[in-house]
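Q: My hope is that you can spare some time for a protein that puzzles me. Underneath my words sits a plain record pairing an amino acid chain with its backbone structure tokens. Those tokens are not coordinates but codes from a learned vocabulary of shapes. Thank you; the sequence and its tokens follow:
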Amino acid sequence: MISGRSIAGKAAVIPIYGNEEVIKRIRVEFDYIFKGDYPGIPKVAIHQIENTPFSIGALSVIPIQVMHHTMPVFGFRIGDFTYITDANSIPDDEMKKIHGSRFLVINALQREDHPSHFTLDEALEVVGQIKPEKAYLIHMGHNMGLHGQLADELPPNVFLAYDGLSVELHHA
């Protein structure tokens, strides 16, 4: 299962894919998840991966190593869809993996510099380099301004993501 949604009242297992360092951090910072079965604790399945393509069922996934301050973390490309959050930089060799994406989801925390997240201008710079058909900004702080005003500032192919937004991926 890829979704964390509840099915018939039963909590779904949330898959987590990450490198060794990220998984260690998750086990420390969210240790309560791994300490037994308590109501409300998310059920997770940890999958340690490297920076090489892997599959989830019939779905081919390409990890994209990005930086979250000083920690390497992964974004992911699935077909012509790329998802990057919690990033403040993308190395040139990893950027090559993103080129050709028709759809890009990328974080833009705030307008001011931040040590571990793209600013609005930095995210828009990445969008400008990739030139996707559509880009969605995620992981935005409340200080970005009002939705309508911010949306009016964006290029025509860039949109503000929102809670509940879903995209449908089709694969051959």
Remarks:
- Confidence is low (pLDDT under 50) at residues 1-7.
- Strands lie at 13-18, 43-48, 54-56, 59-68, 71-78, 81-84, 103-107, 134-138, 158-160.
